[in-house]
Amino acid sequence: MNIEKTESDLAAELGISPLNVCLVGSTLICGKGNDLDLLCLVPSDECLRKAGFEPDTKIKYESALRSWRRGNINIIAVNDRAFFLAEVAIAHAAKQVQNGMWNMRDRDDRVIFHSAVRDAVMGRMDANVYDDILDI
């Protein structure tokens, strides 16, 4: 696994594991963006406040995401591990299909794509695992 320096620096600043920070958004998906979007799995909002981030009330997500901003850094904070992992998968899937049927340079298309994939992944998080499927 390749942890970017930006991810590890932010993790250290927030006092969380680098595994809890993932570059997302247009910088990851398109290779550049107007700001730096980082998905963070945090225990509470307190670590964000202590690091000087403020809630970004301009962005309303239809999910458990909370946006925090400091300058050109946008933190997309979550406190649910499964949701975090689903969002990581979505971001990296979007990066892979950037030249496909979705226009990943268009924010609305990215939001629609993220919602569709996230709903599919989250809907299966409670699926049963059957170890004894073969009764030999």
Written account of the structure:
- The chain has helices spanning 5-14, 25-30, 46-50, 81-96, 107-122; strands at residues 21-24, 36-41, 54-55, 66-70, 73-78.
- By secondary structure, the protein is an alpha+beta fold.
- α4 (81-96) packs across α5.
- Mean pLDDT is 80; it is low at 126-136.
- Strands 1-2-5-4-3 form a five-stranded mixed beta sheet, with helices on both faces.
- The chain is 39% helix and 17% strand.
Shape, principal axes of CA atoms: globular
Span of the ends, CA to CA: 38 Å
Residues in β-strands, percent: 15-25%
Task: Sketch the topology as an H/E string, one letter per element.
Answer: HEHEHEEEHH
Helix content: 25-40%
Q: Overall pLDDT, averaged?
A: 80
> Radius of gyration from the CA trace?
16 Å
Q: Give the low-confidence spans.
A: 126-136
Class computed from helices, strands and strand pairing: alpha+beta
Number of strands: 5
Count of alpha/pi helices: 5
**Strand order, largest beta sheet:** 1-2-5-4-3
Biggest sheet architecture: 5 strands, mixed
Describe how the helices and strands are arranged:
Blueprint: H1 5-14, E1 21-24, H2 25-30, E2 36-41, H3 46-50, E3 54-55, E4 66-70, E5 73-78, H4 81-96, H5 107-122
Entry summary:
The chain has 136 residues and is α+β, with helices and mostly antiparallel strands. The protein has helices at 5-14, 25-30, 46-50, 81-96, 107-122, and strands at 21-24, 36-41, 54-55, 66-70, 73-78.
